[in-house]
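Hi U.,

Before I forget, here's the chain from the pilot set. I'm dumping it here mostly so it's searchable later in email.
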Amino acid sequence: MTYKFGNTFSELMQIRDQSDDPTREITIHKSATTMYKTPVKIEEVITEALAARAVAANDLWQLKTGRRQTISIDSEAAAALCALGTPMTARKNATGHYESIPEAANFSQMVAITQPWECRDGRWFLPHFNLPNLEKRVLSVLHCDKTPASVAQAVKKWSAEDLDQAIADARACGGIVYRPDEWLKTPQGKYLASRPVVEIEKIGDSAPEPLPENDAAPLAGLNLLDLTRIIAGPTCGEALTEHGANDLMVTAEQLPQVPAFVRDSSHGKRSTFLDYTQADNKATLTKLARQADIFLEGYRPGAMAKHGFGADDLKQLRPGIVYVSVNCHGTGGPYADRAGWDQVAQANTGIAYVQGQAEGTHPKLIPVFLSDFLTGYLAAFGAMLALKRRAVEGGSYRVNVSLDQSCMLALRQGLRTDDYMASPDDISTVKYDQYAVYDHTATYGDLKTLGPVIKMSETPCCWHGTTPALGSARAEW
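Structure:
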C-alpha cells in the first residue's frame, strides 16, 4: 500500500522549496500496529522527518554525482529510534549473550520527579531536575527533598504562573502544562507559530563552495564541529555522520553528562576535551572552527556569543560556515533566553496535556523523548539544505531548531483515533537484528545497538569507527 505522507513531510518540503516530487524516490514500510501508548503519531512524525532528511542528503548527492538514490524507511524501526537506551542498546554479558543495561539509580530518580505536578491553583507544572547544577537551582526555589512526595508538596504551595517565573529567574528549568490551544495563545506560542519549524537564514556573503570530490557519501569530506550534549544536539551530529560527515565532538572535562546518553548518541564520532574559557583551549577551538563546514551548538541562545563563538563571530572567522543552533524555545519571544528539555517542551506545548487526556488522568509525559530526537533530525535536515545553498549560491547560514517547535509539528500531524492503547508494552520485538550494529568499545563493553534505519540505494547510512570515550581524540581534524 502506498504511504500517504502527512503534514510533517509537507512542511519540510516547503522549507526545501524545490519543484520536484521527491515522494517518487521514497518507499515507506508502515507497520500495521502502533508502537507506543500515545495519541501522538510518533511513527509517522519520525518516519517523515527521516524521509525529509534523506531527501536533503539526496540533493547533496545529486550535486556531487548528477544521480539520485532511492530511499526506503521502515516506520517501526524509525519509531524505535526514540527509545533511547534499553531495549535498543544491549551489552554482552559473561556468557556471551546480550542483555539490557540497567538504568542508573540517579537517572531513575530524576525521571520520577521530573513530572507534571499540581499547583495551588489547580494548574500543573513540570520542574526539571537533570544535571546537578540545574537540579540545585530548582531545589533552591522549591526547598524540598528529591522525592516525588516532597516535590509534589512543594509545587502545591505555588501558583503555576508564580512558580514558572521563579524557576526562570533562578535560571533553572521547568514549564507550565498548557493545552495545545492555550499554548498557541501565549506570546511564546504565537511567536513560534509564526516561524518555520526549521529556520534557515543567510547571515553572510561568501563564494560558492562545491562539495568535496568524495563520492563515499553525501557529506563525505565535510567537517562538523559538534559542541552539543544530551540527546537533541548529539542526535543531529550522529545523523550527519550517517551521511558521511566527520564529527569532532567537543566538550569540557568538567561539564556534567548523562553517561547513557553519551554512549547511545556518539556513534561514528570522535571526542575531544576543550574548555573554551581557557585561552589556549579557545585558540585551539578557533583553529578547528576555521576548518569546519558545520558548527553545531546546543547551549542557551546567546551563550556561545559571550565566548566569541556565536553565529556572527563564526561567519567572520570562517566565511561559508553553516551554524546550527539547537535549543528548547527558539531564538525569539519571551522564553528565548530560557534553557529547557524535552519534558519541558512536552509540558508547554500541550503534548503532556494530550497524553493525560488520553489516559483519563492528569497531565503525563509520552513514553519517549520524541522532541529530542525529532529536533535532532530536523537540525540535520536544515544543515544539509544550507550546505546545498552554500554550494550553489555561496554564503554563511544559520539554522535554528527548537524542542517546542518539534512538539508543535508533531501535534500538527494530528492525533490517533485508532486503538493505540492496545500497543504492546514490550517494544523489543522491533526488527532489531535487521538494523543491529555491534560495537566493541573499551569504555562501554560489547554493545548491540539499533543502527541507522534510513536505507539509501548507493550510500547506505552507517557509522564509521567505534563509540568513543569522552576526550579520547586529539583536538584536530
